[in-house]
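Journal club prep — side note

Before the paper discussion, L.F. wants everyone to see what a predicted structure for a comparable chain looks like in token form. Sequence:
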Amino acid sequence: MAAEIELDRRVIAREELVEALAVSAAETTSVTEAEQETVPSPVPGSVVPPWRNGLPVAVLAPDYQRILRVLEERRPAGEGPVKAKELAAELGLGTTPAKVEGVRSKARRLAERGWLLLEASGMFSAGRRLVAVPDVGSSA
């Protein structure tokens, strides 16, 4: 008899837990969807979102913003695309291989997400382009 009572209590506790978790998950989903509509604040080392019309540069981490700023300042001056080594120097990072590769990696990430252009020569220039964004629900 005591075992049956204990089993009933556990079944009820489990049902209440499942129900509470379902409510919590629904609230988390609605908060997450609401947050997606707002502009996220940048976090150093954060993911670079794909560029789209109306998305401000402020969503990017400061390092990415600096790269874009340097390239955009070159455009009105009539200066063409720039190599990663020149970009690192203009950013004041120097031209050591580690710094150049860090800048190249960030610039490539920006180009892959449509924030700037990667020329066939491997040089970078200011410009925006839409990129295909994979479906969030796809398993690929």
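L.F.'s comment for the group: DSSP finds four helices and two strands in the chain. Keep this in mind when we get to the figures.
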